[in-house]
Every structure is written in C-alpha cells, then in structure tokens.
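Anyone up for a design puzzle?
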C-alpha cells in the first residue's frame, strides 16, 4: 500500500510538474491527477463502483416555471465582439431551490437553419473545468479572445455552423455555476453531476421549448468521458420510466476521454514510449513491472524507478499537445497580437481569464460574480473532493449499443495525457466486431485522421495533429468530424475511391 502511494505521488508530481510554466490550464491537470491518485490509492473518500443512474427525478418535481426567462437571457452583444447574425443567450438555471444551487449556461444558435439543425451540449472535464473557458472561448465556440483580453475575433470553424450549441458550466462551483450551500462543493461526484446536469436540461428545454423535440447530441472531452455517458444513461433511463421521449437523445461524441483507468494509464506510458519521450528501457520496464488494474496492490521498485524516469523526461513539454509551444508570457498586450486559425496562442488561457473577469462582460452575459465571492476560474478552485468516480465507463458504452445510440469516440493524436493508445486499448477491450476497418479520412486531399467503425454504430476516429483540446488545434478537421457525426455519415474511406 505504501509503495503504491509512492508511485501515485510520482504520477501526481508528473502531471503537476509538467506545467512548470504556470498556466491556468494546469489546474485541469491538478484536478484529474488528484482524482487519479485518490482512485489508484483506493482512497475511501472516492467510491469507484460502477455508475448507477440517479434515482428517479420526476419531471414535475424538478422543473420550475421558466416563463419569460428566455427573453431575459438574450445577450445583446458580447463586449468587443465582431458583428454576427446568430443569437446568443446566457443565464442561470436553478437546479435546486432549497440548496440555492444554479448552473450557468451559454447558448449560441446556429448561424444558419437554426430551426432544423440539432441541439448539441458540450461539456469540458476536470473535474472542475469550465465549458465556457475551454469549449466556448478556446475550442468550438464562435469567438476567441484577443491578447488584449477585451476584444474578440471569429472562429471560422465554430460548431454553430453545424448545430445549436449549448455550453454548460457544471457541477456547482465551476465557472459561474454556484451553490448557496457550501457543502455542495465538497460533495461533488459523478452521480450528483449526472443528476444535476439532467435537471438542468429538463429546465433549459422548458425555457427554450422550441428545442424540446429537436434531435439532441451530447459531446465533451477529457473527464467528460464520464459526464457525457453518465448523463446519456440518465436520459435514457428517465425516458424508459416515463415511457416517452422527455429528451430526444440521438448520440454521444467524446474526445480524448477518460473512460477506463487501467488502459488509460497504460496507454499513456505506451504513448510516451512510442513518441520518443522516454527510453525503450523505461517503456519496457513500465510495461513489464507496473500493474495499473483497479485490483493492483503494490508496485515493485522497478516500476517506481521507471515512472520516475518518465516523469523527468516529459517535465518540460506540454503533455496535452507534445509538439506545441509553451506560454512564456501571459501578460495582456495593448494591441491584439496577430491571430491564426492554424495555431492557437499558447497563452489563450490568460486572455480568456482576463476577459471573463471583466465587469462589462459579466453584465452582458448575465453572469453574477458577486454570488461567487471569488474570481471566475477556468478550472475550479472551490470544488473540493469527489465522492464517486467509476474506474470504467465501458459498460455504459456497451449498453448504448443495445439502445442503438450513436457513439463516436475521437482522439487528437498529439495528446499524451489521454492519448490515442489509451482510447484504442479501451475500445479494444470491448471486443467489438469491425464493420469498416482502420482507414484514413480526408479533407481536401489531406489526411485529417484515421477511423474505424464497429458493428453497432460505434466509431473511433483520430484527428491528425491535434492535442487534447481537438477543436483548438485542428478547428477545421474538428468541424468536419462533428458534421459527419451529426449526420451519422461515415468519415470518407479513401481506400474505396
Ligand atoms: C458505492 O456506490 C455503490 C453504488 O452506488 C453503493 O452500492 C455502495 O454502497 C457505495 N459504497 C460506499 C462505500 O459508499
Ligand atoms: C433539493 O435538495 C434537497 C437536499 O439535498 C433534497 O432533499 C431535495 O429533494 C432537492 N429538491 C429537488 C427538487 O430535487
Ligand atoms: C443564493 O443566494 C442569493 C443571496 O441570498 C440569492 O440572491 C440567490 O437567488 C440564491 N440562489 C438560488 C439559486 O436560489
Ligand atoms: C408506453 O407507451 C405506448 C404508446 O406510446 C403504449 O402503447 C404502451 O402501452 C406504454 N407502456 C406502458 C408500460 O405504459
Ligand atoms: C509581465 O508583466 C509583469 C508586470 O508588469 C512584469 O513584471 C513581467 O516581466 C512581464 N512578463 C514578461 C515575460 O514580460
């Protein structure tokens, strides 16, 4: 047990020390690493048993009156934004009145055909990281923040070219979402998050009734590999109890997703080994001597030495995108720096932080930071502890195949944190039959990634040259991927002409 704790401490220091060049993004690493550490050391504070959907949340009991709320939530204009033709909304949805718990959302309608295009909810991971900070302002949202921290520019490849996109800050304690009962910040976990996200959706659809019957999709990355399938299962389960479609869920899309602790960890070290980040000897020692299974007891000395060596070797790179430049100067600039859709500025976290903490911005988006009593943070500093986190969500993915829910799992292939090797091992462990074998998918003659389709409507796709936050690094490829996903159209198999 003691040795096991040592290796976990090493694992932890590995993820923490990676960002010696302090960025806000490193908080995402802290959160995930803390949780991994607690889970692998079998900390009794985290229940790792199989996820069960929350007890029946009866619609009539959890849905509050939403009359007039939609109009109030309409955002006239974000400060510093260029002119656009689509509508934006932002505001709070009360999750539990007696606790005083409310979630903040930001909604961007589709640029064209908003009446017919589907609704897509995007979730970031952590636990504790904001979908506004990453999803909306740095990945797939319509705008990105300039280096002046106060003006915005268009993201040409925003996902509201393909869907009406809803960003949710969840659970309470993340971003502008809060609870008046402070114990809620200590009692977060997979189960309560799924329940709260579900209550959010029911209420939100009441506020925006025109989306009630619309095809609905759930998407997210990283620890949303838990949130998305768990919310999907909660939706399916409640539709079954009600014997009607309360939420018209059609599919889920998860990227660089935490789905199976054992293969996620092994895949990470194999990725280090296969990308010349660690020596062959270290890679082989980890493979031969470490045991990352949930039942592992202690790790031998050789394993500890090897992971220690791996730690040293990857210390100075961005493990979330191994070929990316680092941020050395996060100071705002008087004039915006030149931007490029191909290369996201590695200091974007700082610009977003500055922007979201401006009073005029918070007023415009109907966020209320005075309720928070702290700054808006990209990854939460108030969320403490995590009650439950299953060691695997593979059983949920299997269940979805029975219900014929579309499941797409994608991976930016330059992420070393939850890399393609991890995702492949996890999907392989499902032992599915292959429908369309591994093949490149193309965009304007260039390989955008690779894909494999399994029988039962599960697709595994890579995005070439993308780090952990795929739409940040390969926005054009990411938009093509999501369009194919939403249409249920296989990624083009170039081998077939
Ligand atoms: C963990 O969660 C499972 C399923 O929700 C439950 O049956 C079990 O009692 C929990 N264990 C502890 C120690 O709380
Ligand atoms: C609100 O939270 C309280 C305390 O946890 C709980 O008893 C109650 O059922 C919740 N209310 C609703 C409508 O879910
Ligand atoms: C939380 O408390 C504040 C101050 O009392 C109140 O204005 C707010 O409405 C409460 N939030 C919820 C969701 O009830
Ligand atoms: C469920 O609804 C269908 C019609 O929508 C009905 O035929 C069926 O009897 C219902 N089942 C139950 C168990 O109520
Ligand atoms: C950023 O600004 C601070 C405060 O003005 C300054 O001390 C620091 O040197 C700047 N950083 C860089 C890398 O220029």
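Challenge accepted. My sequence:
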């Amino acid at each position: 047990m003691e040795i096991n704790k040592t290796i976990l401490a090493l694992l932890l220091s590995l993820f923490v020390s990676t960002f010696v060049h302090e960025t806000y993004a490193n908080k995402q690493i802290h959160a995930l690493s803390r949780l991994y550490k607690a889970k692998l050391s079998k900390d009794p504070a985290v229940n790792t048993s199989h996820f069960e959907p929350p007890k029946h949340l009866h619609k009539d009991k959890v849905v509050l009156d939403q009359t007039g709320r939609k109009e109030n939530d309409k955002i006239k204009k974000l400060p510093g934004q260029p002119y656009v033709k689509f509508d934006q909304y932002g505001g709070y949805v009360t999750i539990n009145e007696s606790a005083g718990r409310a979630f903040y959302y930001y909604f961007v309608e589709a640029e064209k055909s908003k009446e017919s295009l589907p609704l897509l909810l995007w979730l970031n991971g952590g636990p504790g990281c904001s979908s506004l900070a990453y999803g909306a302002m740095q990945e797939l949202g319509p705008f990105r923040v300039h280096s002046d921290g106060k003006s915005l520019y268009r993201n040409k490849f925003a996902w509201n070219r393909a869907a009406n996109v809803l960003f949710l800050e969840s659970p309470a304690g993340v971003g502008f979402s809060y609870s008046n009962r402070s114990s809620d910040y200590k009692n977060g976990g997979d189960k309560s998050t799924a329940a709260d996200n579900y209550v959010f959706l029911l209420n939100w659809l009441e506020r925006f009734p025109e989306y009630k019957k619309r095809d609905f999709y759930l998407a997210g990355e990283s620890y949303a590999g838990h949130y998305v399938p768990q919310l999907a299962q909660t939706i399916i389960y409640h539709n079954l109890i009600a014997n009607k479609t309360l939420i018209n869920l059609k599919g889920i899309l998860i990227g660089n997703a935490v789905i199976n602790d054992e293969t996620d960890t092994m895949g990470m070290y194999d990725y280090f080994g296969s990308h010349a980040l660690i020596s062959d000897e270290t890679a082989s020692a980890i493979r031969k001597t470490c045991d990352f299974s949930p039942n592992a007891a202690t790790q031998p000395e050789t394993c500890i030495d090897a992971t220690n060596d791996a730690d040293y070797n990857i210390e100075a790179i961005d493990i979330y995108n191994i070929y990316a430049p680092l941020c050395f100067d996060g100071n705002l600039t008087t004039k915006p720096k030149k931007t490029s859709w191909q290369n996201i500025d590695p200091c974007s976290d700082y610009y977003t932080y500055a922007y979201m903490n401006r009073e005029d911005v918070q007023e415009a988006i109907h966020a209320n930071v005075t309720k928070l009593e702290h700054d808006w943070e990209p990854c939460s500093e108030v969320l403490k502890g995590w009650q439950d986190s299953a060691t695997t969500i593979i059983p949920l993915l299997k269940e979805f195949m029975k219900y014929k829910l579309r499941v797409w799992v994608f991976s930016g292939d330059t992420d070393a944190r939850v890399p393609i090797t991890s995702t492949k091992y996890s999907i392989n462990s499902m032992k599915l039959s292959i429908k369309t074998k591994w093949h490149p998918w193309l965009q304007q003659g260039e390989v955008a990634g690779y894909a494999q389709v399994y029988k039962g409507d599960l697709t595994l796709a890579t995005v070439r040259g993308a780090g952990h936050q795929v739409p940040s690094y390969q926005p054009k490829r990411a938009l093509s991927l999501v369009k194919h996903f939403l249409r249920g159209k296989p990624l083009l198999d170039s081998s077939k002409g």
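A detail worth pointing out: Residues 5-47+262-313 form one domain.
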